[in-house]
Every structure is written in C-alpha cells, then in structure tokens.
C-alpha cells in the first residue's frame, strides 16, 4: 500500500437513537445511527408480520394454469 494516502482506521463510538452505545473501529470517530440490534423490530420480535398467505394464493392462482401444462425434463 502507498504511504500517507489512506485514512486513519481507529476506535469508533456508534451511538443509536435508542441510547445504545457500541465500540467498534472505523475511519470516523463517532457514528450516529437510527436503529441497532437492540431496537430494530426484526431483532426485538416486534416486527409486523405481512399477509404473505394472500400473496402466495394470488401467485398460485395467477401461475397455476401456466405451470400445470409444463413438464420437467
């Protein structure tokens, strides 16, 4: 690598909007984020479940006639 052209890579403090603070490494001293693993709905189990059953049924109705006539080789 060339000398004196790369940014310094050092300790970094990540601050979430929920108040959680993490230590990591980055080219910046501090990072402010909106969500983290503590407050993100997917990781907390509070995520909204989408109606995938309706989507799957519509998909099957739409493509049922097209896939029924085809045979696998």
TrEMBL record:
GO terms for cellular component: ribonucleoprotein complex; ribosome. Keywords: Metal-binding, Ribonucleoprotein, Ribosomal protein, RNA-binding, rRNA-binding, Zinc. It holds the Pfam family Ribosomal_L31. GO terms for molecular function: metal ion binding; rRNA binding; structural constituent of ribosome. Zn(2+) binds at residues 16, 18, 36, 39. Binds 1 zinc ion per subunit. Its cofactor is Zn(2+). GO terms for biological process: translation. HAMAP family: Ribosomal_bL31_1. Binds the 23S rRNA. Belongs to the bacterial ribosomal protein bL31 family. Type A subfamily. Part of the 50S ribosomal subunit. PANTHER family: 50S RIBOSOMAL PROTEIN L31, CHLOROPLASTIC (PTHR33280), LARGE RIBOSOMAL SUBUNIT PROTEIN BL31C (PTHR33280:SF1). This is Large ribosomal subunit protein bL31. It comes from Fluviispira sanaruensis. The lineage of its organism: Bacteria, Pseudomonadati, Bdellovibrionota, Oligoflexia, Silvanigrellales.
């Amino acid at each position: 690598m060339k000398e004196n052209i790369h940014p310094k890579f050092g300790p970094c403090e990540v601050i979430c909007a929920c108040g959680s603070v993490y230590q990591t490494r980055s080219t910046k001293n501090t990072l402010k984020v909106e969500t983290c693993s503590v407050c993100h709905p997917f990781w907390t189990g509070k995520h909204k479940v989408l109606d995938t059953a309706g989507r799957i049924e519509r998909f099957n109705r739409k493509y049922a006639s097209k896939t029924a006539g085809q045979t696998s080789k």
